[in-house]
Design a protein that fits this description.
Blueprint: E1 2-9, E2 23-24, E3 27-28, H1 29-39, E4 45-50, H2 53-61, E5 65-68, H3 80-95, E6 99-106, H4 116-127, E7 131-137, E8 147-150, E9 153-156, E10 172-182, H5 183-188, E11 204-208, H6 220-232
């Protein structure tokens, strides 16, 4: 069974322009995702889907196949699943083989737990689910501690009297580290184009992580958080890059 790793990276970004190529410990942010994909034993092949020329050059240097993302799929309104389907179809055309599973890896996530890609693929196969994603627990931004504001008047999002963190209902957010889906679910989403989560299928499973096991680079402060965590893992960077 062919498992295609798809690294997704747009050149543009409103929040932090060029974030995938921002320097992090002397290396581009996306270089860490390249490392994660290349270290995986479950991925049959890995491609980069991007409109970023610097990212594509770096991918080719590392032996990662590049798929040029069309302009229409590189806007901030284009969906992730549309870009993934394009990458799958392009790879299948080039290699004459059918992809069974697609693993979506965002290029702006330089911190991933060791082996988590392979764990997600294994769980997807073993459970016969439609998708497997990594999640982390919600803490201080829990819905029971969130308020709407009417002027400066606070209105509870969910009425409650919980004041201890231990009493909050366990809830989880997708941390972005890995999203593994079946080909059937990915392309089945075309039947419901208005549902942008449909590509995850009906049977959606999770791998629970700690909050620090993944860092999504969206703002400049995220680079500092990622640097601290990478240093804690023993990464010293590459001053030559």
């Amino acid at each position: 069974m062919d498992v295609l790793g798809i690294i997704l990276a747009r050149a543009g970004s409103r929040g932090l322009p060029g974030k995938c190529m921002r320097a992090l410990l002397g290396r581009p942010v996306i270089a860490y995702t390249f490392d994660h994909a290349l270290a995986s034993r479950r991925l049959t092949a890995t491609v980069l889907s991007s409109d970023s020329e610097p990212a594509k050059r770096l991918a080719r240097e590392l032996g990662i196949e590049v798929i040029d993302r069309p302009a229409g799929l590189a806007t901030d309104t284009a969906t992730v699943d549309a870009a993934a389907r394009h990458a799958v179809e392009e790879w299948e055309t080039r290699h004459g083989r059918r992809v069974h599973f697609a693993v979506l890896l965002y290029g702006n996530i330089p911190v991933r737990h060791d082996g988590v890609i392979d764990r997600a693929v294994a769980k997807l196969i073993e459970t016969k689910a439609d998708s497997v994603r990594t999640v982390a627990p919600v803490s201080k931004q829990h819905p029971d501690w969130i308020h709407r504001l009417d002027g400066d008047r606070m209105i509870q999002f969910r009425p409650n009297s919980i004041y201890r963190r231990q009493d909050l209902e366990p809830l989880y957010y997708h941390d972005g580290a890995v999203a593994a889906v079946t080909r059937d679910a990915l392309f089945g989403a075309l039947k419901t184009p208005d549902d942008h989560q449909a590509f995850l299928g009906e049977d959606r499973r999770a791998i629970t992580q700690r909050c620090e096991d993944a860092v999504d680079i969206d703002e400049a402060v995220d680079l500092h958080i990622a640097e601290a965590l990478l240093r804690a893992k023993g990464c010293q960077g590459d001053a030559s890059v």
